[in-house]
Write a structure and sequence with these properties.
The complex is a heterodimer of chains A (about 775) and B (about 200). Chain A is of the alpha/beta class. Helices cover about 25% and strands about 20% of the residues of chain A. Helices cover about 40% and strands about 10% of the residues of chain B. The chains are: A alpha/beta (about 775), B alpha+beta (about 200). At the A-B interface, strand 8 of A face helix 4 of B. The structure holds iron/sulfur cluster (SF4) and FE2/S2 (inorganic) cluster (FES) (2 copies).
């Protein structure tokens, strides 16, 4: 904590932190100073001069930019003097010299800081009679972002964001003086996972997104705060809806999680909500012409599950349900168990990265915010940039503020430059096992001994022995002051873990599936036939099962095998809670009407119970929420709807429940390929969102130069051949990878047919005929 | 790879001079200019790899400074000062004489890629105004006639290396002071001759 000092603003005394900027100190006391370039999450630059204020100095009064001047004891500030007003008018008059004033056709109009501040502080008229500077109007700078350089006021928010925050400076100021413009390098588009943030923070309409262009006027938008499903970070978002259509998602500044930023997937993965392909009625036997009523479907399902033979009922759940829905599912399983002892019921999470994790000691559970206070951050998990993109931004920020980062390979190569130590192939084998004793890892002990350490820990690859991870955690626990952030990356995984009594993994599903029994399988918002390393085996089991019910939004590889498909609600169409990876529970809100005869997942569970004459004790999300709140360890601060809706809790409530995961350790054998998940892939929601549907289309594998040479390759397009399957892929060279380890994206089309433990061949594509092979 | 080994070697030597790679950006851009007579996109890609910043960051710097040329220059870059001291000493007629001789307007290059003409701000030779630079080698105290003579000489003799002293002796007038370093070498293309980065060339004898 820094000292508190007094300053005087416009005649009144203000108490403020001594290391604040004038603009921040004023903001905190409710005095608004106009600004364009200053953004509280980025370093100040003093580009625009809109924030000029008058301060008293030993040499008399002076105009200074309040965004680059720190407060000092007894500083006297005037934000409204005649001189300040004149300065503001002058700045605005200059800014408008080259601004096209095409507000009637500009997306920003209505929420444009330039428009608003010109109204509030501007001169009212311009003396500029000369020609304005012209640029070609909007140029695409990536597949999803457009830039109108005429509107740009050169505040450098976008360029600073890409450099300082996201670390991929692909846009910059080009030229000088009157010709200055933001631009990309030719043939090097602004392909950043975070590019959408620049659209949100641009103070004019210079940066726009393809998905929102010309769709709505800000004053027509209905808005509600919610929580994103994009990753287990649980980013705070604002959903913008007009005429019952979701048109835009904006990041909200939640101090504890995303701090205003979103990944482009979190931001643009919503168009699927209004896709024509959504299932709107229950479907029988995957035959679109065979739509049935909800009542009929419930009838059919209850007939199956109430048969009193020793059947196996399996539930494979995905990551996009709310806590209330998971709780209702759990309640369904419990109730069914009660009436029927012969049936064997299991809930599996559709996630290859699941393992027991470290949940036993709730005191040692870390928080995202610990990143800013610990000495050392240890990272051994899936690719954070791809799977928890906003956590990646927080880690970047922490490293920038001097925290030490230690990465264990072979994922997260994208963060190698940030790390103080990156332990690659010398320390970890291809199979992600230690080559050396942990205590003998060079330069490791001094980074952790008696230090405050936050370990972000998870499996790097679906097929991985987790003992080395446990060994590392034991070692850290003994030698440092350790906090752990369990790194399961997908959606509401933690909500599922908290609200389902016993969660198993997909490998258990395969082990426990007994084809001699009557098998009933429910898949709930999950597509294990496409998204798992066990896809092929799961497919066989589902074909073999006696009855399969899929609850989903779209038809996909899994629903194809279902006897009944039940259409469900999605993000924005349901109310509930979401638990993020630090056990912070946040509210998800409903703003869209429910389409067709679609129901919430919990409604189906409740109706099924009714059909088999079991009384259920809830009738709404609200009641489910009250019930699930009873199990939280800290009774005084439960994440009930009421509590979460309080202004003081808008950032969520931290609270734990006991977590029970049962999963067998996966023996890796010899890994030939390492599967990872990339941010963009072929999920049904993404491919049904036109703006971003193509971003996950490219099929590529990564290897280092050594491996490239070792395979006798000379071109960068090859066929990956394994048994009968052939997949044409591009090769990207990544020299941070260990020798002879190849990385392949599991969530791209075609890769699920590849078995990571079996040998494969890479065959060069020599002629065009071969090129057309798919 | 558009840069040959020799150029790359020079680049690496320059990078070693600095604690951070990216600090070598300025001199490397001169190497690029020495190679092509302007900063080509290929060279930008090369430099971005050499100093670990993105291409657009290199472009941002190269397009900011007017001495990094974005377009192909001629063999001889004629930079005529138009700032105040030279203006007072009739730089206008020097400018006009160059325009007339070359037929070029500001920032233009002729078809044979022999001359590029530009009007520039003060080149630090006010004491000997009006002043001109040929490939960044300065001549002071010019008259329109001498200027044309100089252009003719460039056109006919096509000297490979331009050296300030030589220009001054042949065409110059009043000199401000003897500012050149002792073993002043010249420049061989439209890039200033810096000895520490190897763009300075030995005197043409
Ligand atoms: S494009 Fe927008 S954010 Fe970027 S510099 Fe221009 S006005 Fe600022
Ligand atoms: S906000 Fe201070 S100069 Fe732009
Ligand atoms: S004004 Fe021409 S050299 Fe200074």
């Amino acid at each position: 904590m820094s000292d508190q000092i007094n300053i005087n603003v416009n005649g009144s005394e203000i108490r403020t932190d001594s290391d604040q900027l004038i603009i921040e100190a004023c903001e905190d006391s409710g005095i608004h100073i106009p600004r364009f370039c200053w953004h509280k999450r980025m370093d100040p630059v003093g580009m625009c001069r809109m924030c000029l204020v008058e301060i008293e100095t030993p040499r008399g009064k002076a105009l200074v930019p309040s965004c680059t001047t720190k407060v000092s004891e007894d500083l006297v500030v005037d934000t409204e003097s005649e001189v300040v007003k004149k300065a503001q008018e002058g700045v605005l008059e200059f800014l408008l010299i080259n601004h096209p004033l095409d507000c009637p056709v500009c997306d920003k109009a209505g929420e444009c800081p330039l428009q608003d501040q010109t109204m509030a502080y501007g001169p009212g008229e311009s003396r500029f009679v000369e020609d304005k500077r012209h640029f070609e109007k909007p140029i695409p700078i990536s597949e999803i972002i457009l830039l109108d350089r005429e509107r740009c006021i050169l505040c450098a928010r976008c360029t600073r964001f890409s450099d300082e925050i996201s670390g991929d400076p692909l846009i910059e100021f080009i030229q000088r003086g009157n010709k200055t413009q933001v631009n990309t390098f030719p043939d090097e588009p602004f392909r950043s996972y975070f590019s959408g943030n620049t659209v949100q923070i641009c103070p004019v309409g210079a940066l726009t997104s393809t998905s929102y262009r010309f769709k709505a006027r800000p004053w027509d938008l209905k808005k509600v705060s919610s929580t994103s499903n994009c990753s287990s970070m649980g980013c705070s978002v604002e959903l913008n809806v007009s005429q019952n259509k979701m048109l835009r998602i904006l990041g909200e500044d939640n101090e504890f999680t995303n701090q205003g930023w979103l990944s482009d997937k979190g931001r643009y993965n919503f168009e699927y909500l209004h896709s024509e392909k959504r299932i709107l009625k229950p479907v029988l036997n995957n035959d679109s012409t065979n739509e049935i009523s909800i009542n009929e479907s419930m009838e059919l399902i209850s007939n199956e599950i109430s048969v009193d033979d020793n059947s196996n009922i399996s539930f494979i759940v995905g990551h996009n349900s709310t806590n209330e829905e998971y709780y209702a599912l759990n309640n369904f399983v419990e109730n069914l168990n009660k009436v029927n002892n012969d049936q064997n019921m299991n809930v599996y999470l559709s996630d290859d990265y699941l393992y027991e994790g470290f949940f036993q000691n709730t005191d040692s559970l870390g928080k995202v915010q610990d990143l800013d206070s610990v000495d050392t951050i240890i990272l051994w998990a899936q690719d954070i940039k791809d799977n928890l993109p906003t956590l990646y931004l927080r880690i970047r920020q922490a490293v920038k503020n001097g925290k030490k980062l230690v990465i264990f390979g072979h994922t997260n190569t994208a963060m190698k430059e940030l790390a103080d130590s990156y332990f690659g192939q010398e320390i970890l084998s291809k199979n992600l096992e230690f080559n050396v004793e942990i205590s003998k890892i060079p330069n490791f002990n001094e980074l952790i001994n008696d230090k405050n350490v936050l370990a972000i820990i998870g499996k790097s690859s679906p097929i991985q022995n987790t003992n080395p991870i446990s060994n590392l955690i034991n070692y850290l626990d003994k030698n440092s002051n350790l906090k752990i952030l369990n790194c399961f990356s997908k959606g509401n995984t933690f909500g599922a873990l908290q609200n389902i009594d016993l969660v198993k993994g997909l490998n258990e599903f395969i082990n426990e599936f007994d084809s001699s029994k009557n098998n009933i399988v429910f898949t709930i918002g999950s597509n294990p036939v496409n998204s798992s390393i066990y896809s092929n085996q799961i497919k066989d089991k589902l074909i073999n099962a006696n009855f399969v019910v899929s609850l989903d939004l779209f038809k996909n590889e899994t629903t194809e095998l279902a006897d009944i498909i039940l259409p469900t609600t999605s993000f924005g169409e349901k109310e509930g809670t979401f638990t993020n990876l630090e056990m912070r529970t946040l509210k998800q809100n409903k703003i869209l009407p429910t389409p067709g005869s679609v129901l919430n997942e919990w409604e189906y569970w409740s109706m099924m119970l009714n059909k088999i004459d079991i009384e259920n004790n809830y009738e709404s999300e609200f009641e489910l929420n009250l019930q699930l709140c009873e199990e939280y360890l800290d009774k005084d601060n439960v994440p009930s709807f009421d509590n979460l809706n309080k202004p003081s809790n808008l950032d969520g409530v931290l609270n734990s429940k006991s977590i029970n995961i049962e999963i067998e350790n996966v023996e890796p054998g010899t890994l030939e390929l390492l599967f990872v998940n990339r941010l963009y892939g072929d999920s049904s929601t993404q491919i049904n969102s036109p703006s971003i549907s193509m971003l996950g289309a490219e099929r590529f594998i990564e290897m280092n130069n050594h491996t490239f040479i070792k395979h006798n390759l000379s071109t960068y397009t090859v066929n990956l051949v394994q048994g009968d399957s052939t997949l044409q892929v591009k090769i990207k060279i990544n020299n941070h990878l260990p020798n002879e380890l190849i990385i392949a994206p599991l969530n791209r089309r075609g890769f699920r047919d590849i078995d990571t433990t079996k040998p494969y061949e890479l065959i060069e594509v020599k002629n065009l005929e071969e090129l057309s092979v798919n | 790879m558009s840069w040959d080994n020799e150029l790359l070697e020079r680049a690496h030597k320059i990078i070693e001079l600095y604690p951070q790679k990216r600090s070598a950006l300025g001199p490397l851009l001169y190497l690029a200019q020495e190679k092509d007579g302007f900063i080509s996109d290929d060279s930008i890609v090369e430099i971005s790899n050499l100093v670990d910043i993105t291409e657009v960051q290199v472009k941002s710097v190269s397009s900011f400074y007017s001495m990094y040329k974005e377009e192909q220059t001629g063999t001889y870059l004629l930079s005529v000062c138009k700032s105040i001291s030279c203006e007072i000493n009739d730089s206008r007629s020097v400018i006009n004489s160059v325009k007339e001789f070359t037929g070029l307007e500001n920032y233009e290059t002729d078809q044979d890629k022999l001359f590029t003409f530009e009007e520039v701000e003060c080149i630090g030779a006010c004491g000997g105004a009006p002043a001109v630079q040929v490939n960044y080698e300065t001549v002071e105290g010019l008259t329109p006639e001498k200027t044309i003579e100089m252009c003719e000489w460039l056109k006919n003799d096509k000297p490979e290396i331009i050296v300030a002293d030589q220009l001054q002796n042949k065409f110059g007038g009043t000199k401000s002071f003897d500012w050149a370093i002792e073993d002043n070498t010249g420049s061989a293309y439209t890039v200033p001759g810096f000895q520490n980065i190897g763009t300075a060339k030995e005197k043409d004898n």
